[in-house]
Please model this.
Amino acid sequence: MKKLYSFFVAVIVLLISWGAVGHRTVGSIAQKHLTPKALAGVRDLLGGQSLADVANWADSVRSLPAYKQTGPWHYINLPLGLNYDAFKSRVENMLEANVYSALVAQMQLITDNTVSRERKVAALKFVVHFVGDLHQPMHVSRSADKGGNTIQLNYDGQGTNLHAVWDSKLIDHTGLDYQQLAAKYDNASPAQIRQWQNDPVVKWMWESYQITGQLYAEVDTMHDRSIGQAYYDEHIATVALRLEQAGVRLAGLLNVLFRNGPVAVGPPDPAATAPAVVADAAPVAIDIKDAANHVDQVVVVSAKVFGYKVLSGLTLVNLGAAYPDQPLTVELKGEAMAIADSLDGKRIQVTGKVELYKGKPEIVVTEKGKITVQ
Model:
């Protein structure tokens, strides 16, 4: 059973893209660049949710049976060393499922008047996510190392891999949440915005491909593959640029798709998976160190309790390490507050939805049954 659990966690970690904070940053930037008609069209499909709210939906559903075919939609594998023309030809003519073909297909669903509202909602969420994915350099890379997932690195004294560094480690190192990142990085000039939005999607991917080649070359010259502040200082500007470009370009796509405002929808499709079904999805088992990559997901996580703090109306439990280094905080409310003392020093299992509070992951628990001592 332990081997099965470890394998499941490894698969989940392997599939994460840009990390929850990165995708939300892209969605937040895009929201600010929507035209009034596009904003109306987005609100018509998403209701009270923002682009940042749905930015990680495509990752949260990919483990569900109804979406098992969507795994390859998040990336594209290509050999290194292609020139632009060869790259463009490969991307546009690839027969295997990939992020480019998936993005094009989902955009077409949004503008198809015969497609049901449920499918259009899902298509919009996919578009938001895929634009973020193809701006993450390691999602346009080679298959031999699974987009850098098998290239082991040591970052700030902890083992990780090249893909994870570019998904979330560099972003996490900023210490900012997605709203702060969006405010800091959203500063393109009108001329830049016009240029970025006029570039074809293949050009966006070509940019990632070129960065990926440089990252692979850097790794090949490393002696012990240990990186830290110097690597962050050298590359965080690239991360910022890709997040900003993704947000601006996502807005550009949506401004075109919803240029006339809300889109017409077809009759309900019984075969479509409505968003309500996703909300009731089974919890996903995760490693506590990756809690920040599962924001808005209902998870199951196990770790040791390292103290707690009682405040007015709630109790904060440090899970995985003592404050302020805990990778996850469990916020007890209501009847759950009564069990805090019995948890201290114990290894517990918690089930709940991961949320961000001041840029750090937490799970709010109001029912005692959501926590068990192991």
Remarks:
- The chain is about 50% helix and 15% strand.
- The chain has two domains: 2-276, 282-373.
- The two ends are 15 Å apart (CA to CA).
